[in-house]
Amino acid sequence: MRILFLWLGVVAAFLVPASASPQSMTACRAKPELLKIGSTLPVARKAMAERKHLRIIALGSSTTVGYGVSSPAYAYPMQLRIGLEKALPGIEIEVINRGIGGQDVEEMAARMRVEMMSHPPSLVIWQTGTNAAMRHMPLDLFEQRLRDGIKLGQSLGADFVLMSLQYAPAVVALSDEEVYERIMAKVATDVGAGLFRRYDIMRGWYDDGMPYAQFVQLDGLHLNDFGQKCIGKLLTQSILGALTGP
Amino acid sequence: MAAAASVRDIRLDLFRGLALWFIFLDHIPTNIVSWLTVRNYGFSDATEIFVYISGYTAVIAYSRMMARDGWTRAAARIYRRVWQLYVAHILLFVAFSAQIAFVSIARDTPALIEEMELLGLGQNPYRAILEAALLKFRPVNLDVLPLYIVLLAAFPFVLPVVVRWPLAVIAASLVLYAVTCRYNWSLPAYPDEKVWYFNPMAWQVVFHVGAACAVLGPRLAWLDRFRLPLTVLAVAFLVFSAFIALSWHYNPLERLIPAWVSRQIYPIDKTNIDILRFVHFLAIAWLVRLLVPIDAPFLKWPVWQPLRRCGEASLLIFCIGTFLALSGQVIVGQHEDSILSQIVVSIAGIAIMSSAAYVAAWFKAGETAGAPRAARAAK
Fold it and tell me: What does R_g of chain B's alpha carbons equal in angstroms?
């Protein structure tokens, strides 16, 4: 019994440094070039200038829903709203969460029109790719649906920013997740949409020595509180950069 | 079964108490003390322990009642318990929301709106209250009781079958579990895009395996013929899962895991209790069965007394623990996540839970002692 406690003590001492990793946002970083989304968001700028109003739809899957986070307010769409409200006083910011867990381009492109007609946005954040990669959706079909979806959304009068896959054990274990991410980058460039490089940003955290437990839930797939808050904060910076830059 | 029911199995209260402490510690998001809980050393966590023991004790509590008073009375008693759980859940919901409101009012007014958004109450509070009454809207960490309510509400129909054919119940339960995972069945929640965080159609497997084990009782000794291979398998699986779990905290370990292994194990779903979580729990249960026999003398050590008391008053302690975890989160946040505050909050929370359990035991002792006297007085 005593030996058991000794062992527990040794294990606990061994683990202290890891768990001491703070939840505070000081560890939330990204290289500046990763935060350039490659679009000036003309529709959103116009809406802000003319109507003092910016309506954003966050279209996506479980990350957008905020699966498993300890408060809905930590999910990136709410973080985006809070961040933009602080940075853009005098502008009414609205972020509508249209995330449905488990979906990908196919289902989301299919509901794009309905979502955008009921509350016409100036900007759509489209978080996608992860479920497609996990379900091994054929690459050409993925590209086609993504392209069609964005074109449809743009024709309804909104700017688009794509959010790429998350860097998490379940995603990294796939052999071709980077192909999906490259397709997203290519399509974004082709159709003039922005790209928020979530995959590269999160890989940066991992390569800097941040353990998965700090930003991914124990299921090895979903972002945890820190991951969501940090992605929300960096997304806010990226959008602000695009809205206020040259 | 009769043998299992006639001796009170101290292990059930003890481990349920432990699960309740773990749930409290794990519900404080930044808490160094949660390193003492199972979830950091493998796939499963305290939820499996709690649900399994709930199934096990449900059989012990209601099977004798059914044998003595018939099915109708047993079913009525089960639904009275379901009602108690429902009332407890709603009370907890109100107390939880009130605590958030209190915290935000105590700070300053503009924060109030944001904090209520935390709950999802902000945009449409009336709708949210309706959905809460329907168990579809549950703020963070209030997911376990609705699961338990659904499982127990189905239990009157499981009970007569499980006491006769426990293995058939295990088989049917596994089939439902497999079909649920295969076809992604889920229960809708509020707001509309959400689903129940703990899917009852998947999690029922833990509850019903617990119930069947309670019926099998001594007959489980049949498994002892395979004691050595089962133990080797269980230990090997626990070591493997501990390695994986620790790799989430240490990148050098993580890099040792081949991609094909990761491809097989991830994601380790919690909503539909991934098979790895379930097997991990079964491995723990097997080893506990060997290491902690029902008559182990150390079970009666007074040091375990607080755990047993908490396990006996599990509903009360669960509610208090969930409420206190939120307080703990707020307090730790106010102290900028300092490690000292995490330790103090954890110890204080467990002390409060244990004291409440002792008070509950004291009340109960008073009732049972008073009952014969009251009966005599009535005559």
Answer: 22
